[in-house]
Amino acid sequence: QLVESGGGLVPAGGSLRLSCAASGFTFSFYTMTWYRQVPGKDRELVAQITRTGDSTTYADSVQGRFTISRDNAKNTLYLQMNSLKPEDTAQYYCYVQFAPEYHLRGQGTQVTVSS
Q: Which of 9, 35, 36, 91 is 20 to 30 Å apart from 45, CA to CA?
């Protein structure tokens, strides 16, 4: 199970920290990903982190503003979002892929950035 939290309404330029609590699998074994989606648009990979946290990847649109991290002892994934823009408004999901046809996604947390 993946349960996201930390979303909300924030003015442009503000910050939020999203969390994703994992359970039911060995969290430290897997690369973790944050996606976001706006209704009517394709989902966008926001950030990804390897199982040990030694390598991260970001979408160009968030590079330098967002930071993905994880605490394997707490089975928790994070996304620190700074300098938020109205175009960051979306539903944010954490995601894990166990195998090519087997993955898990949380219910999502809404982030709304006002201009």
A: 9
Q: What is the pLDDT along the chain (115 residues), one digit of tens a residue?
A: 999 999 999 999 999 999 999 999 999 999 999 999 999 999 999 999 999 999 999 999 999 999 999 999 999 999 999 999 999 999 999 999 999 889 999 999 999 999 9
Do 21 and 38 form a contact (C-beta atoms < 8 A)? no
Q: What is the 3-state secondary structure (H, E, C) of 5-61?
A: ECCEEEECCCCEEEEEEECCCCHHHCCEEEEEECCCCCCEEEEEECCCCCCEEECCC
Residue 68 is given by DSSP the state: E
Given a contact cutoff of 8 angstroms between Cβ atoms, the answer to whether 49 and 69 are in contact is yes
Tokens, residue 97: 């892929």
